[in-house]
Design a protein that fits this description.
This protein is α/β, with parallel strands linked by helices. The chain folds into two domains: 101 residues, Elongation Factor Tu (Ef-tu), domain 3 (Beta Barrel), CATH 2.40.30; 130 residues, Rossmann fold. It is 21% helix and 28% strand. It is built from eight helices and 13 strands. A seven-stranded mixed β-sheet has the order 10-9-8-7-11-12-13, with helices on both faces. A six-stranded antiparallel β-sheet has the order 4-3-6-1-2-5. The protein starts with a helix and ends in a 6-residue tail after the last helix. The model has no long low-confidence stretch (mean pLDDT 93). The chain binds flavin-adenine dinucleotide (FAD) and FE2/S2 (inorganic) cluster. The site of FE2/S2 (inorganic) cluster (FES) has 12 residues, from loops.
């Protein structure tokens, strides 16, 4: 058994290098990373890696690039504490350790053939960007696509280039809102829930994929249920404190459920599966 675990290459730290760093906001930077020795990271949208900084520690970070982009992958990192602040000090050319990918991603095969509504709040756009760009790269496999994005203020909006690209596409409906505007902001002002009623939804064939801060889930789900989207068609990604990322340490246990770990059984779940057992 131990032998088997040791040969699982996803569990070992693999060395990589940062090939590009881009400041996105005052708190977030985008890192493009390549594994060493020409290795390729195979992953699904919604999965995460453990970023390992030698002598500092590890932190789980969602893959925010689409797996259709081969060669390198991207992580959007908010400076929140020890590991993430240390990561913000890194530059192109610096070495980095990566474990993973871990977790269950978004059920891409189940989503195929259906209409999709993406609802992202704040940093939740990071894992959703992976799925959105995957869907765009395989556009004919999916029905209508609506992207709804909310953040606190215009300065905190992430992935400006992607937002512009999505906005320009005729096969994607994009709408965003901020809690508080500024003199240059000409768009919607209000919570993300305020732009859900305006979306035309065929509940028979729609999946909603929602990622954002915990406070957002209850209100967004309530709006989606008003649109008659089935609970099993509402897909969420949960955050828990994690250590190992691979179902061994128990740190990310989902509330009262034994042997139900966010890092392994999630982080992506359908709402019907977790509504009675997990705090969002
Ligand atoms: C599956 C998953 C995907 C994630 N994806 C991203 C991502 O794409 N980009 C990103 O910037 N962050 C992401 N996070 C959050 C990120 O892992 C934490 O911010 C990071 O672990 C903090 O580590 P640190 O050493 O920098 O901070 P620490 O010094 O450990 O802690 C700083 C503060 O953050 C709190 N904290 C640490 N981990 C979490 C957590 N999981 N949930 C809530 N609070 C936490 C601590 O309690 C403390 O108050 C993700 C978390 C999970 C579980
Ligand atoms: S982080 Fe160790 S079991 Fe999930």
């Amino acid at each position: 058994m131990i032998k088997e675990e040791l040969v699982n290459s996803n569990w070992r730290v693999r060395k990589g290098h940062i090939i590009r760093v881009k400041r996105m906001t005052s708190a977030e930077k985008l890192f493009e990373i390549e594994l060493d020795n020409g290795r390729v990271m195979d992953y699904e949208p919604g999965q995460f890696v453990q970023v390992s900084l030698f002598g500092v520690g590890e932190a789980p970070i969602s893959l925010c690039s689409s797996p259709t982009k081969r060669g390198s992958f991207e992580l959007c990192v908010r400076a929140a504490g020890r590991v993430t602040n240390a990561m913000h000090a890194l530059e192109a050319g610096d070495e980095i350790g990566i474990r993973g990918p871990f977790g269950k991603g978004f059920p891409v095969k189940v989503l195929a053939g259906n209409d999709l509504i993406f609802v992202a709040g704040g940093l939740g756009i990071a894992p959703l960007r992976s799925l959105i760009n995957y869907v765009i790269d395989n556009r004919r496999e999916f029905g209508k696509v609506d992207i709804l994005l909310g953040c606190k203020n215009p300065r905190e909006m992430l992935f400006a280039d992607d937002l512009e690209f999505w906005q320009k596409r005729v096969d994607v409906n994009f709408n965003c809102t901020v809690d508080k505007g500024d003199p240059d902001w000409a768009g919607n002002i209000g919570l993300i829930t305020s732009i859900i009623p305006g979306v035309t939804i065929n509940p028979e064939r729609t999946f909603a994929v929602v990622v954002g801060p915990p406070v957002m889930y209850k209100f967004v789900i309530s709006e989606l249920l008003k649109k008659k989207i089935a609970e099993r068609n509402i897909i969420l990604s949960l955050e828990r404190h994690m250590k190992c990322g691979m179902g061994k340490c128990g740190h990310c246990q989902i509330d009262s459920l034994d042997n139900y770990y966010c890092c392994q059984d999630g982080p992506v779940f359908s709402y019907d599966r977790i509504k009675n057992v997990a705090k969002m």
